[in-house]
Design a protein that fits this description.
- It is a single chain.
- The protein is about 65% helix and about 0% strand.
- By secondary structure, it is mainly α.
- It has one domain.
- A two-stranded antiparallel sheet has the order 1-4. Strands 2-3 form a two-stranded antiparallel ribbon.
- A hairpin with a 4-residue loop joins strand 2 and strand 3.
- The two termini are about 20 Å apart.
Amino acid sequence: MTEMVHGLVLSRSGDPVLPRWWRTIDKWTMSCILALFAIGMLLGLAASPPLASRNGLPPFHYVQRQALFGGVALVVMMLVSMLDPRNVRRLAVIGFGFSFVALALLPILGTDFGKGAVRWYSLGFASFQPSEFLKPGFVVLCAWFMAAAQDPNGPPGRLWSFGLAVLIVAMLALQPDFGQAALVLFSWGVMYFVAGAPMTLLLGLAGAVIFTGTIAYESSEHFARRIDGFLSEEIDPRTQLGYATNAIREGGFFGVGVGEGEVKWSLPDAHTDFIIAVAAEEYGLVLVMVIIALYGIVVVGSLARLMKERDPFIRLAGTGLACSFGVQAMINMGVAVRLLPAKGMTLPFVSYGGSSLIAGGIAVGMLLALTRTRPQGAMGDILRARG
């Protein structure tokens, strides 16, 4: 039968690994990730020296650490992108298992670093945030369950994935980490929709989320404070949102100039959660639009390749990873411009953070592995195999 591919070059199984990898990889996505990391290093040079000075550290302490963690993340991304879908699934299951245990032990062994939420393990020389590593494994594992449910006499994979999603969301909400909980729930919802979920069920889940959010608002001072700050008509100029909003306004179209920004001296999280405010103030709307375009190319390009994919597991897992990546970026930037309540979420590959960078490298590596050009059997063959 005739073979169809989503690309112009067939992958020949006897080829050496590196040439075959280079021919089949999504070069647009890989280039955009490298560009985002380069922009992150540029912004780190501007945003992190004031923090290093306040902490009594060398001026480029955080820049050097970002380069180290980023280098590890890019190497991990390249290595993971060379895996086939079966090994991606194996890696995801193992990674999810370790991350789940680490997440469960956070209330006992974790620390909050004075931020009011127990999300990290302190390793002395660095910190480790299990939820960052949990997300890619969770997405791939749920995609495996949902894909298995489509097979004749398959397991109730959708129900399993729903139970797993509820458990993870509950564990994250108890930290509390409502931002990561929302991202996990969104990733699951996108995959469930692509897998053929009825719209009435998704609307019911949306209602359940609103109800749960209301309960959280009434019972959690941390959650209520952030919602009240978001809904308030006036922005306290001495808060992080106030500083970020003013910096974005001051930046205008072309920015105030390299190194001339003031927000990095006021924001304690200027190098992490509010890095986009530094970009807007010093480089203006131009750089912000470039950053948004890079994220858009990664997400839209990956989804376009996945639309041609006939393996349900690959299609679901790739969709979940791509949408999770894009929505995390959207949430981070939405918080900075006050379109969303404060979430404490990094900007992928741009913000400082070892866990965020390395976990992002794993997630994008999985996405690159799943979107590689590969032979696709003719649809008639697939239907007969399923019959």
